[in-house]
Inverse folding.
């Protein structure tokens, strides 16, 4: 009879409207009925992406959409910039390398943000750079990049700006068109409050020009084919029908609230979480750079980080995330993204306090974190 | 208040157990809870595939799994055989060509099956052929290939046998191991009674040997990475969690019935459908070669095939499929696959009779098709 709470940076909890939509009888995809649904999904995604560009829906996880962002715009031996500030920045380099695209890697210490000037410098040195691959919110560190400033730099070059917005889209600000983001990829299981299984990718006019010259082999992720189908409100392959139906429900919820309101709610949840963490005497992984998507916290000295996460989840039903790759066991991460409310944050902090106490970390008064979060939520 | 009935060859109707599973709260994928689910899914798929090989679960539609079957085992300039007996056989050639793999195409007229001897002949002529790409059931024509005989031929060569079992797996017999099928791909939305969004692929020891030499670029569909994760009961990227949870429910239903019983039920439904069609004086597209998955019927002279399908669907709520590609408007197709029962077939035939009458095709007595189907269902 354990009650479960999910506060991970993907998947995020499903609103009841989404659960209900997922349980409906399935319909066929080559019908006027589904065309109506697809049309609504396309325009709903344009709203969330803040773009007039086409946003394609792929039956894949976010990594598939990232691959689409590489194979559709590049050729072997092209050179690109990849910004690596964590596990997901590194993924850009891995995908490009798998397709023999040369990467000029800008390595940033985990927990830090890239200096846009470093990107400008590299673009100045090598005029042949075709694309700049970045990450809106690096889930592994909880840090958001300054995509707006990067956009200002890249727009005046021949390169396209590619943004991995898998974590962050629909949770924090990303103005695809206004910030000159040529290709934005995302996934369903984060700010969009759906189960994983859908990838999204938007393509600007500047990116379509590159697409015409791209020679990398592709079939399933071929956006040329996707575009032909899109123009007829169709998909080239069988789409993930059920998830797209649920997507419309999720976007309807976001629209009802309004994007601005959704973003400010995420800001508030993030602030409450950070204040709670500080009130417990714990250290934020990155006090200067952070995002309103997920908060990464250093595991205090003497505490087993993996056991902390495991106990919260398996004993008390509160699932947060541990550290990834080089930060395994050294971090824990509390997500405040999507369908997560004030009292989910309170629950997570209360459970964290409880397990820290049990594990012998007691340099705070029980309730101190919860109280700090409550104070943030009480502010207008 | 129109009641809807789905008799298309993918997606197929969802059992209530699947709908319920899809509507559950989501759980995180890097947890012991999900590992249990994934373990059950892997062994359940081995049961349905009738194999001891690993069966990988991809977040993609069936076409993604087909692409995985190309990019993991081949290199550019390799030569393969593709059997084209319809739209989905042609897809093998398209994917191979996109990756610059040379295809020796065996073209078979739509509605016919390949003569296994033609495959043997080509393999004899060119010892460098790396793979033979076939289709278990060609959805566009309703015809099943003799995979068993093809397996007997291919097993004694250096080539691997690749089978597109997207339509057919879990509905008609396919003995992956016993028939020497090295790579079998499938999807979720057919015999497995799920929404689309999962691709499956099994890999034999012979295929793994080819995989080691494959130089085609890949990342998202890289089965080498998938294998490393599989061995730890994990996935390389975020899996389509909700669909995998529902997959276990679907396979539980299949297991409860038993594969043999499921296959004989499909045989019965197919026979009932064919007898009904004949009783209406209509012509089967392929009277000698057919499958127990979907029945393709020639649109009678003077009748608008597209309007027939449209009226059944939009006026009466019964969704069947029209013809694809070169058979557009010339065929209609009634699926009898997955969670479709006796009275769904009766409904489809009754609706077909009604609409044929309305459209002026009246060379049968109303009820003749239904009666013929009933007689088949009444047999022990």
């Amino acid at each position: 009879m354990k009650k479960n709470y999910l506060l991970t940076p993907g998947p995020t909890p499903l609103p009841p409207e989404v659960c209900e939509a997922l349980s409906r009888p399935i319909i066929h995809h080559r019908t006027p009925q589904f065309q109506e649904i697809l049309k609504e999904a396309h325009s709903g995604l344009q709203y969330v992406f803040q773009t007039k560009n086409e946003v394609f829906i792929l039956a894949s996880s976010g990594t598939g959409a990232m691959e689409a962002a590489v194979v559709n715009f590049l050729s072997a031996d092209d050179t690109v910039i990849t910004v690596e500030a964590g596990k997901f920045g590194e993924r850009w380099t891995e995908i490009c390398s798998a397709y023999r695209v040369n990467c000029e890697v800008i390595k940033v210490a985990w927990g830090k943000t890239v200096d846009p000037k470093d990107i400008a410098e590299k673009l100045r040195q090598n005029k042949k750079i075709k694309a700049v691959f970045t990450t809106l919110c690096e889930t592994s560190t909880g840090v958001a990049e300054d995509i707006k400033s990067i956009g200002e730099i890249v727009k005046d070059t021949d390169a396209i700006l590619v943004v991995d917005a898998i974590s962050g889209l629909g949770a924090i600000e990303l103005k695809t068109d206004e910030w000159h983001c040529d290709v934005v990829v995302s996934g369903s299981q984060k700010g969009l409050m759906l189960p994983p299984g859908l990838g999204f990718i938007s393509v600007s006019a500047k990116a379509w020009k590159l697409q015409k010259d791209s020679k990398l082999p592709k079939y399933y992720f071929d956006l040329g084919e996707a575009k032909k189908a899109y123009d007829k409100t169709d998909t080239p392959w069988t789409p993930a029908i059920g998830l797209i139906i649920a997507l419309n429900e999720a976007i309807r919820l976001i629209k009802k609230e309004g994007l601005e309101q959704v973003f400010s709610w995420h800001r508030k949840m993030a602030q409450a979480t950070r204040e709670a963490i500080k009130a417990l005497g714990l250290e934020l992984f990155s006090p200067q750079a952070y995002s309103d998507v997920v908060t990464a916290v250093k595991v205090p000295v003497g505490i087993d980080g993996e056991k902390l996460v495991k106990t919260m989840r398996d004993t008390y039903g509160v699932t947060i995330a541990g550290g990834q790759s080089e930060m395994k066991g050294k971090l824990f991460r509390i997500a405040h993204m999507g369908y997560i409310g004030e009292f989910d944050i309170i629950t997570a902090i209360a459970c964290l306090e409880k397990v820290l106490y049990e594990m012998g970390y007691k340099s705070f008064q029980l309730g101190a974190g919860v109280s700090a979060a409550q104070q943030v939520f009480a502010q207008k």
Remarks:
- The first strand of chain A starts at residue 5 and ends at 6.
